[in-house]
């Protein structure tokens, strides 16, 4: 399949998960929309001095399987762009994954992974080449103007094409077992999926992210993070880029597909993302341990 080296703005839902049973959040089902969680993880990051650090780490991400509520948070001045709950992700294997949402992108384990979201309806998402930069985030109207908030950056290191029906056998040596359980297995059932997800019938492409130890054109994948949570956590950083790269009001469809860009151009845009995350007082989360299997 032909490939393009692109910068992709990929918007996904901004809603925050809420507790639904005691101190746990059950696995999100297809009866409800995808949502984000503000999570406590153990991981690694690169600080403002470009030094590598490790320890407890906090950040926004997608995790549709179960989570334990660590504690409620207190958004400053009632600002609902700040998180209201702090979660510790885990999951319980199922006999059937039918009707469950999967997690995509997946920021846990040795490499960030992106495997299916929007791909059936946007074929360009199945044609990205090494060095492409995918910025995942959400749009929000702020003071009358649309702003765009970043939660994950995946720099494509390599990829593998697969079919939903044989995903577990094709991808087994490429991904952690946790990813197979929480992302791939929900794709293999026959329950209807939303238009942003995929099914066992679809042709898809798994992307693995570059890391600080395996760079692509000097770039690596990261998520905005902080080694401190405090009483309020943090809101996802607002990102401003030229309109040819990012349109804050274009929050219903991926942008940038089919526009082949040079490595130098992509590196310059990636540098802007890094600078704006750091200007927000955050660090670059580069690794999060796999959530516990219970």
Note the run of SSEs as H and E.
EEEEEEEEEHHEEEHEE
**Mean of pLDDT:** 92
Major β-sheet profile: 6 strands, mixed
Q: Work out the helicity level.
A: 10-25%
Which structural class do you get from the secondary structure elements? mainly beta
Q: What is the radius of gyration? A: 18 Å
Intertermini distance: 39 Å
Q: How many helices in DSSP terms?
A: 3
Uncertain segments are 190-196
> How many strands in all?
14
Q: Count the domains.
A: 1
Shape: globular
Strand content: 25-35%
Please supply descriptive tags for the structure shown above:
single chain, 294 residues, mainly beta, six-stranded mixed β-sheet, four-stranded mixed β-sheet, 14 strands, 31% strand
Short summary of the structure?
The chain is mainly β. It contains three helices and 14 strands.
Commentary on this structure:
This protein is mainly beta and 294 residues long. The protein has one domain (7-26, 33-293). Helix content is 10%, strand content 31%. The protein has 3 helices and 14 strands. Strands 1, 7, 8, 9, 10 and 12 form a 6-stranded mixed β-sheet that branches. The protein is globular. Mean pLDDT is 92; it is low at 190-196.
């Amino acid at each position: 399949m032909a490939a393009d080296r692109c910068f992709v703005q990929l918007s996904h839902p901004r809603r925050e998960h809420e507790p639904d049973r005691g101190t746990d959040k059950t696995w999100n089902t297809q009866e409800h929309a995808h949502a984000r969680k503000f999570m406590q993880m153990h991981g690694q990051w690169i600080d403002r001095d470009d030094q590598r650090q490790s320890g407890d780490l906090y950040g926004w991400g997608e995790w549709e399987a179960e989570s334990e509520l660590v504690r409620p948070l207190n958004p400053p001045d009632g600002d609902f762009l700040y998180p209201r709950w702090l979660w510790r992700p885990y999951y319980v294997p199922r006999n059937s994954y039918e009707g469950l949402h999967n997690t995509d992108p997946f920021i846990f384990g040795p490499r960030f992974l992106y495997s299916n979201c929007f791909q059936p309806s946007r074929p360009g998402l199945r044609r990205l080449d090494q060095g492409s930069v995918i910025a995942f985030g959400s749009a929000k109207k702020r003071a009358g103007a649309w702003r765009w908030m970043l939660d994950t950056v995946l720099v494509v290191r390599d990829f593998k094409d697969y079919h939903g029906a044989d995903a577990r056998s094709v991808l087994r040596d490429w991904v952690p077992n946790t990813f197979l359980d929480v992302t791939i297995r929900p794709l293999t059932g026959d329950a209807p999926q939303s238009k942003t997800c995929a099914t066992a019938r679809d042709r898809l492409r798994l992307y693995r992210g570059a890391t600080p130890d395996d760079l692509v054109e000097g770039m690596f994948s990261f998520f905005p993070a902080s080694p401190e949570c405090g009483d309020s956590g943090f809101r996802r950083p607002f990102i401003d880029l030229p309109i040819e790269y990012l349109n804050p009001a274009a929050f219903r469809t991926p942008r940038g597909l089919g526009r082949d860009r040079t490595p130098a151009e992509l590196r310059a845009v990636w540098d802007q993302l890094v600078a704006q995350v750091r200007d927000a007082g955050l660090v670059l989360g580069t690794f999060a341990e796999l959530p516990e299997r219970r």
